Every structure is written in structure tokens, then in C-alpha cells.
Amino acid sequence: MEYLLSFILVVGIIILVHELGHFLAARAVGIRVDRFSIGFGPKIVAVQRGETEYRIAWVPLGGYVKMAGMIDESFDTEESEFDPEDPRLFINKKGWQKILVISAGVIMNMILAAVVLWGVYATRGIPTVPEQLETVIEAPVPGYPAAEAGLERGDRIVSVDGEPVKLWEDLVDVIYARPDKEVTVEYEREGRIESVVLTTREERQPGSEVPVGKIGIGPLLEYEPVGAGKAFVYGWVATWSILKQTAQAIGMLVAGQASVKDLAGPVGIAKMTGDTAREGFGNLFELLALISVNIGFLNILPVPALDGGHLVLILIEAVRRRPLSTRIKIWVQQIGMILLLALIAVVIFNDVMRLR
């Protein structure tokens, strides 16, 4: 139940804010919105308010805002009745208005991350790094070997394969030198020395072809209290940093330096949110910000059925100075959705295999 509730909280907020961006932008430029849906497929509950139906549906893999006069990925077979000359149709809006509406969801994802991190930093402070960083670990990254092996926040790493480590940089050097290797990690917990055997994950650093080993840990940091103004700036700086890291990860995936096996799907995210919830709301909201940026960035990629795919179609129509046929739009969206669902199936399979 803890995993389920934390997953619903995190993913529900992200989807709601994303779709709210599309909804508010559509209303701002005068587009009629027929439906605002959290989830796909048959409805669980629905309420009609004015010309818009608000619903929660059974398939929690996203959501959609059904705008009059737009071919979308909602799998909605109900056709809206409208006059082709109606100025409130999506297709009859100016190019910049269409771009604003399609981009608004991603923009809201970034704003959500920055605001959440602002709140976290304002209440907890900003992390600081001492001159000599000891080998005491922060909460392990969910899904990585350290977390799966049972290492916890506050554990002090003493040695790796019998090689003593006193400073964090020594620990990094030892682990990095053992990609995809079984290692014995000795650690101190509450005055007792314990050990665990785990297998490092092989990854590549951005811009490097040399594989390194990782176990998914970070150093335990101190936190410096800051005012609301400085926390606001740090929230945006951290959001930008997450965005750059996400872009680098996608670049590595495209370049073949990373594998689809490294991606987390709904099951993996549910496990991460559940594990992180146990560490406190501060860490959970930091994870929410991370996932929000990741989802926002992925949505803006030029892939059919995603927001970026819609933007590509809008730009093509702007260059052609006439709209694409409805048949072509439907074909592109259907192909894109099939590929997207296939990718989701693959990452869910990987999630399940990692849990075994």
C-alpha cells in the first residue's frame, strides 16, 4: 500500500500538472476543450462542467486534453461535432498558438520541478560538500545494486574487496574500476562491521567510451539553511542540472552508450517512489522533481504521439503553408503510439526482471 500510494501521489501530481498546462493554454488562446482526462481508456468517474468533461480513466499511463479540431493520441473514437470554420478549433489557430498549447505541458513539468525543489531547499536547506568527504552514504538510489543489497542511509563503507577506503574519492575510484563485477563491500552500521556481496552496474560517463562500475550511492551531505529567495534560485539551477543530465542520458542511449535495460518503467518508478517515501517527504519530493523533468523532456522529443511529435507536424504544416491530411495525421499518431506502447512493454519487462 505504501508503494501504491506514493506512486499515485508522485505520478498523479506530474500528470495532472502536465495536462493542466495544455488545458490552461488551450483556454487562454480560445480553443474549445471537450475533455480533460487523467489516464486513458474507459472512465472510472467523470463530471461535466460546461463544455468540458473531466474524467479519471482506468489506464494510468498518462492523460490527455481533448481539444476540438485536433488529432491526438487519446484513442478516443467519439467524434466531436463542429463547424470546420469555427475559430475555436485547434486547426484554425495560428502557428504560435498551437506551439504554445502543445509546449505548455512540458513547461509546466519544469515549473513543477523548480517549485518543488524551491520548497525542499527552503525547508531543509541546500546540500554542502565538506573539504574531506567521508564514505558515509546518503540514501541509496532505488533500483541500483546498493539499495537492492540492503545498504542504508548512514552506513559507512570501510572497504571494497578488502581494499580500505577512507575518503569518498577513494571509494569512487575503487567502484569505477570494477564495471559489472561482483564485489564484497564491508560497511559499518551502528558500531558493527558487516559485509554484503553485490554486482556493480556497468555504465558510461557522458562523453566517455570507457565503462565504469556504479552501485547507486551518494555521499551523506550537510545542509545549509537558506532564505526563500536563495532557495528559489537553487530550485531553478537544480532543475536545469537535472534537464542537462536527462539530455545526456538520452544522448548516450541514442549513441549506444547506454541500454534500454537502464530505463525505468511504471513498475520501476513505483518501487523507487515507495523506497524513497520511507526516507521522508523531502527525498520523495526531490524524486518527484526528477521524474517531472524526465517526463517533460521525453515528451518534447520529436516522436509521434508525444508532444514533440505534434510540434513536428505543426512545423511541417507551417513550412507547407497548408495542413496535412487527417489520414496522414492519424497514421503518424497510431504508428507512434504503437512504438511507444512497445517501449513501455519492454521497460515493464525489464522492471519485473530486476525485481526477481
List the topology elements.
Elements: H1 2-28, E1 33-49, E2 52-67, H2 95-124, E3 126-128, H3 145-148, E4 156-160, E5 163-164, H4 168-176, E6 182-189, E7 192-199, E8 201-204, E9 211-214, E10 222-224, H5 228-254, H6 266-277, H7 281-299, H8 307-320, H9 326-355
Helix pairs in contact: 1-2, 1-6, 1-7, 2-5, 2-7, 2-8, 5-7, 6-7
CATH topology (level 3) name of the domain at 145-220:
Pdz3 Domain
Low-confidence sequence ranges: none
Query: Tell me, what is the CATH class of the domain at 145-220?
Result: Mainly Beta
What is the chain-wise order of helices and strands? Answer: HEEHEHEEHEEEEEHHHHH
Molecular structure report:
There is one protein chain. The chain has helices at 2-28, 95-124, 145-148, 168-176, 228-254, 266-277, 281-299, 307-320, 326-355; strands at residues 33-49, 52-67, 126-128, 156-160, 163-164, 182-189, 192-199, 201-204, 211-214, 222-224. It is α+β, with helices and mostly antiparallel strands and 356 residues long. It has a domain at 145-220: PDZ domain (Pdz3 Domain, Roll), CATH 2.30.42. The strands form 4 sheets. The chain has a 4-stranded antiparallel beta sheet, with helices on one face. A two-stranded antiparallel sheet has the order 1-2. The protein has a two-stranded antiparallel ribbon with strand order 3-10. A hairpin with a 6-residue loop joins β8 (201-204) and β9 (211-214). α1 crosses α2 (95-124).
Task: Label this structure with key terms.
356 residues; alpha+beta; Pdz3 Domain; 4-stranded antiparallel β-sheet; two-stranded antiparallel ribbon; elongated
